[in-house]
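Hi Y.,

Following your request, here is the sequence exactly as I used it, all 536 residues.
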Amino acid sequence: MTNSLYISTTATGSGKALVALGIIDLILRKTNKVAFFQPIVLDCSEGHRDEDIDLILNYFKLEQTYEEAFGLCYEEVKDLLVQQKFDEIIERIIKKFKNLEKKYDFILCEGSDYLQENSAFEFELNTEIAKNLGHPILILGNAHNRSIEDALSPILISCDTYQDKGCTVIGIIINQAEEEKIEELRKTLTKIFPPQEYALGVIPHNAKLSSPRVAEIAQQLQAKVLYGQQRLDSLASNFLVVAMQMQNALERLKEDSLIITPWDRGDVIIGMLQAHQSANYPQLAGIVLTAGHKLNPSIARLIDGLPDPLPILSVTTDTYTTAERIHQVRTTLTSTDYDKINLSLQLFHSNINLDRLEAQIRTLRTQGITPKMFTYNLVQQAKAQKRHIVLAEGTEPRILQAATVLIEQDIVDLTLLGQPDEIAMVIKKHGITLDLDRLQIIDPVASPHFESYVQTLYEARKAKGMNLDMARDYAQDVSYFGTLMVYQGDADGMVSGAVHTTQHTIRPALQIIKTKPDCAIVSSVFFMCLEDRVLV
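Below is the corresponding structure, written out as tokens. Let me know if you'd prefer a different format.
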């Protein structure tokens, strides 16, 4: 029988997408034959697709079709209920599930989120579906802006109801908990639900996950984008209405603030653009100009001369109405929102007992090694023997993005080669969320080890005609400098090749580190993670 799990929420906005991402990511380490299923989707109108289905299918590149990923539309359910055909609802959902079950080793099923008016009936419908599908249940609660009692009460009711129906509850997760409540929630959970019998976890609230992108704000406000089209992916985590003098507004700036101000406040527009560029003030998400007038020509001319301006939006509504509408903007998690997805996976993996959860889900047989398992094993081995790696191409955006993941998951200690100002500029330009305080940046020429590396290179190559001036020129090259770091024991390894050729990357190693005396041939391999297998 196919392994399966049913996510059941206790309230709207519990963060099912985060949990679904974490579970699918966990199971893909065991098998590629994974599917996602929603018994009921809210809207089946033409052109509309369920957000969670789209997210899971596209991000993980699951083989199933969109139509296979749900049982019925909510309108169909209502029509069948009017005809008193409740059993047909269950039968049609089971039929679609069974068709999916024939092709996959594991199916993650996601219950509905109480978006309609009759949440009590919706919960009962979810319990009947889970019971008839035979799924074990993972209950997901929401602690955001709730007391400890208010967060736990619906969980206890849900657990009792499912168990009364003969369903097996294997885990409890409380999501979006404020920092000050986390420890008490964990202690209370373990008192009520024995950790040896249940997979338990409390996931902290993270404002970034609920922060809209500037593009979402522009779309939902029907705003005109005047500037900064290339920066519309920026997160707006804070909102500031500026009607005060500029010096007072500066004191209220926070990271990723969206500034809301009338169109004629040229002093605010110029001041905020300057604050965004200043190292002494936080990075801003953008500016929304209210009342729908055009910019003053002199202000527009000034902004036209900026190489990479902030997003500046224009709306027709007044400042108060605009601010109110912005607070109502709804953000969704899409398959291309890698920053939020990586953050979601990090929160899930670091706050859930994955071993217990995996033990609660029936152990899956593996055939060969899956890409997820391969990368997971590599990461675990790297963490077990944490090393210091130098990344020679420190100004390459892809390298900096990879460094972000490596640092966030604490996989390796990192050194980036390049000029600090240039690296910081690339990070800012591409919106990369790399914490530079957690790694080392070395400009080869400015390094206190530079001259000793020059001498080392000279000694290694003088028999081949290299003099000190030549060694000094070569040592300024990042590939040579990184290789010298490894040779001198100042790093355990070097990674290069994103923008440099294989020849450029490997020549310093052949010249300085060299091969073992009995080895004359150098070879290499690629590990290629395809969709369903790993090739060497």
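The CA atoms of residues 17 and 52 lie 6 Å apart.

Thanks again,
Q.
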